[in-house]
Specification:
With about 160 residues, this protein is an alpha+beta fold. It is about 40% helix and about 20% strand.
């Protein structure tokens, strides 16, 4: 799906002002509300916009320890382990990866002891061979999409111009 300059302007507004109304977005962008709504619908349908939930802080929810857990899985059990990880509330996300390990999971914990309990729970899952855990000390670059959206917008303008 091609994202053009108007799409990138819409996405920028969604990221910068997520609580603004569609009517206000249309006013800011100088487009008709129907045009904006059609663009939003297409961006959702094409999977560019994947949700509208608020961004929450695990630390503010009492889970300040962030860790990345590399998980080695018995061959042929990747899907089963992935399904089991989805049942562990402290696992915030997990991805199949290349390199050392088969899965990389991001986990949140109350403290070091709680993190150890979570990792031990993962080690007991059928199909898990071993884990390796790395604790994050400080966030250096927060999760962000705006620089990517802006780069795509610049490329779209360059291609058009």
């Amino acid at each position: 799906m091609a994202v053009d300059q108007l799409d990138t302007r819409i996405l920028r507004l969604l990221l910068e002002q997520p609580r603004t109304s569609v009517r206000e977005y249309a006013r800011i962008l100088g487009v008709a509300r129907g045009t904006l709504q059609a663009r939003l619908d297409r961006l959702e349908r094409d999977g560019v916009i994947t949700g509208v939930a608020p961004s929450l802080s695990p630390a503010a929810l009492g889970h300040p320890v962030l860790a990345f857990v590399h998980i080695e899985v018995t061959q042929g059990h990747l899907s089963e382990v992935g399904d089991a990880l989805a049942q562990v509330p402290e696992i915030l996300e997990a991805h199949s990866i290349t390199g050392g390990g088969d899965l990389l999971a991001r986990a949140a914990a109350r403290d070091a002891g709680h993190l150890e309990d979570v990792v031990q729970q993962l080690n007991r899952l059928p199909g898990v061979v071993r884990t390796r855990t790395e604790v994050a000390l400080r966030e250096r670059v927060p999760h962000r999409l705006l620089p990517l959206v802006e780069a795509i917008g610049r490329a779209a303008a360059k291609d058009r111009g």
